[in-house]
Structure formats: C-alpha cells, structure tokens
Amino acid sequence: MTTTRRDFLTAATAAAGAAMTGDLSHANAQGHDHEHQAVPSDLTLRVKALESLLVEKGLVDRPALDALIDTYEHKIGPRNGARVVARAWVNPAYKQRLLTDSNTAIAELGYGGQQGEHMQVVENSPKVHNLVVCTLCSCYPWSVLGLPPVWYKSAPYRSRSVIDPRGVLREFGLELPEDVEVRVWDSTAELRYLVLPERPAGTEKMTEEELAALVTRDAMVGVAKVSLSQSGSPA
Amino acid sequence: MNGIHDMGGMHGMGPIRHENNEPVFHARWESRVFAMYIALSAWRKWNIDAARHSREVIPPAEYLRMSYYEKWFAGQVDLLVKSGLVTAAEIESGVPAPGTAKATPPLTADKITVEMLANRINASRNVPVAPRFQTGQRVRARNMHPVGHTRLPRYARGKVGTIERDHGVFVFPDTNSQFLGEKPQHVYSVRFAARELWGEQASPRDSIYINMWNDYLEPA
C-alpha cells in the first residue's frame, strides 16, 4: 500500500510542483499525458492516498468528510433557492425584503446566514433579463443553489457569458427580443447572485409549494425562464 | 496575474455542454477532494484568496485540460506543502514522517451544519473606511497587471463604468492572498455598458456588472 500510495502522491506533487514553478514539461513527464481523457484513471487512487495521509496525520476527520458530502448532496441545493423564489412570488413584502436585504430575507427561510457571503437578488421582468457568471473561477451561491453544475464551471460558459450573453442564452434555448435589456453579473467578489425569475402566467391559483416545484436551478442562474411545462427537477 | 483563469471575453472554448439531471458529484473522488478542502480550510492556514490563487498558477495547458475538482486537488497539495501542514517528503512517501504527533482535526462531523457552512466565508469587515466613490459616479477601472492574485478581470481594465451600489467594506484579495494583510476597503458594484467593453458588436441595451474593490478604481 505504501509503495502504491507513494506513486500516486508523487504524481500529485509533480502537478503541484509544476504549478508552483510553471514547469509544464515536468508535469507531462510524470504521466500527465491524458489529454484524451476527461479524468485520468489514477486520480481516484491519488485522492485516496492523500485522504489516508491526512487521516493518519490527524488533519482531517473521516466522518466529517462524509457529513460534508452528505450535506451538499442532500441538504443544500437548488430546492432552497426555489423556495425563496416561490415565497417572493406569493408574498410582496417578502419580495421587497429579498430585493433590498437579500441575506436577511434568505435567512428567514433557514438558508444562508448573516456572517457568510453577501447575497444580491436580481429580478427579471419583461424588459430585463439577468445572467450570472464567474469569469475568474466559478463563484456560485452555494447556500441557495448548492454546488454548481459542470457547465457553469466550464471555460465555454465563463469565457462567453460576458462578451456574448445573448448567444449563450440562445445555446440554452432562450431567444431574447432585442428590446430586452440583458444584465450580466460577473461574480468577482464575495457577493453571490440569485436571479428572481418571472412568475409564469397561469400560475395564479397555485400554492407556494407548487410554485417552488416549478422553479429550476437554470432559471435562478438566468439561463432559462420558468415555465409551466417544466417540472421541478433540480436541473 | 494575467493567467488562463481570467477568461472573460475569450473565444474558441467550444459549445456549452448542459447535462440534464446532473449529479452533485460525478465520481466519489470528486466528493472527497471537495470535502477535504472544506475540512482542511478549518485549520485556517490559508484563506479563500490564497486557495483561488493556488488553482490559478496551474500552467495554462494543464488548467484547460483538468476538470474542476482536478484543479482543486492540485491546488490542495500546493497549499498543504506551502502551509507546512504536510511536508513534501510526506507527500512523496504517502505516510506521516516518523515521530510526528497525531494532530486533532478542527472540523468534526458534529460541527457541520447548514448554518455553519453558510457562514464559513466571511470577507466583509465592520471597520470604518470612508468611501471614495458615490453611487452614480463615473469611474475607470485601473490599467494594472499585478503578477499575483487579483480579482480585476482583464476585460474591464481601462474601461469606464458607473458606480451602482456600495456593498460596504471587504478584505482585499490582492494582499490577503499573499498573507500581506486584509487591507479592508469598499467594494462597489460597477455597471459597464456592453459597448464600452466590447464595441459595436454588443447590444446597446446590455451591461455587465462587476464588483470592484476601491484599489481597482480611479475617478473617470
């Protein structure tokens, strides 16, 4: 096991060393010639080796790792944001608080907190469409939407959302009329954005819970609208 | 740094690949990398800005090839060694150095709550700093090219925008990432007309909002 672990961690060191020195050839020489593969096959083992080392040194607690994963897989996700949106749709006073003091309004529903990242909720209307991106890394409102999807973290989305937002939206199947104003929010600081989508027509008789089920993650990032035909899948 | 991570406005990255019913993690190793990062951050040996920089310094060709959590893994090893939590020798051997006392992890399962996680990153500072700019004021993003970490995207440098909102006082990433102090200062939401950034090809109606620290701005 030790030999195996040494091998895999050495590869990780090589990558980190290359990162520190900018020595790309070094990393390539250490088995990083996997351009044809999305995920190198030895990554699983390298991560396991690091975890074992950290546990043996007492730097991380394994049950804590399990609890963190369980929390982000089951307790924090786009359903949280959907409930915030639905509340704003049915309660004008809540909506006002949400737009002016987003952190406090979100905390009312039990998500987020006063000491964390600052939230700003931006409202879509027939004349304004908001789109959220992080061009520099992948900042995303974890407390209300959970962890970001791969496309949000990808180079195509990060690079093009600011220069061609209408083209990006078209790729998501959303064609905006010329007279709609597009506002792109580049998350460069510790401020996170949640888009408050337009409430679709024909939902006047729906309950708050039924409305929440209509709200999708994509609509809260701004790459989609909420429609009655959509079911409330996390995507 | 003028790195590959600063990709706003670049072309040629290909189509956006949307996945329906996407899982939170696509493989177990991704979830372990993610959780290790959160758990190790509790040692407070680095900060969010230093962690972001550890991924930015991955060489450009590698950066583009690696998946998101692969970049986190490479950055994590870098942070562990630089902070001294783990030695390079231990990374090479895969086992703790002989004779080292076993530490006690600061983050245990009982401490993990939704609220704790939401409050984990607190970059705002309740200190009196006079704002230099007012809402509605025209400002220019400075034409600066620091070699270290910065949150001023290249596509905005030298461009003129309008202060839309003062978000209050926050830690300054450029110094904080290098452990040179928090240098707390105002962060403003600045609106840039899309045409100011991209010229005639952009819609005259559209705009880009960028959060800018005081030190990134000068009066226009």
Structure characterization notes:
The complex is a heterodimer of chains A (235) and B (220). Chain A has 2 domains: 2-60, no CATH class; 74-221, Nitrile Hydratase, Chain A, CATH 3.90.330.10. Helix content of chain A is 49%, strand content 10%. Chain A has 13 helices and 4 strands. In chain A, the strands form 2 sheets. Chain A has a two-stranded parallel ribbon. A two-stranded parallel ribbon of chain A has the order 2-3. The radius of gyration of chain A is 21 Å and the shape is globular. Chain B is built from 8 helices and 5 strands. With 220 residues, chain B is of the alpha+beta class. Chain B folds into 2 domains: 28-118, Cyclin A, domain 1 (Orthogonal Bundle); 138-219, SH3 type barrels. In chain B, α1 (28-41) packs parallel to α4. Helix content of chain B is 30%, strand content 15%. Classes of the chains: A mainly alpha (235), B alpha+beta (220). β3 (181-186) of chain A pairs parallel with β4 (207-213) of chain B.
Helices and strands, with pairings:
The complex is a heterodimer of chains A (235) and B (220).
Chain A: H1 2-21, H2 24-29, H3 43-56, H4 62-74, H5 78-90, H6 92-100, H7 102-108, E1 118-123, E2 128-133, H8 142-145, H9 150-153, H10 155-160, H11 165-171, E3 181-186, E4 191-196, H12 208-214, H13 217-221
Parallel strand pairs in A: 1-4, 2-3
Helix pairs in contact in A: 1-3, 5-6, 5-12, 6-7
Chain B: H1 28-41, H2 48-56, H3 60-65, H4 68-83, H5 88-93, H6 114-118, E1 138-141, E2 160-170, H7 173-176, E3 185-193, H8 194-198, E4 207-213, E5 217-219
Antiparallel strand pairs in B: 1-2, 1-5, 2-3, 3-4
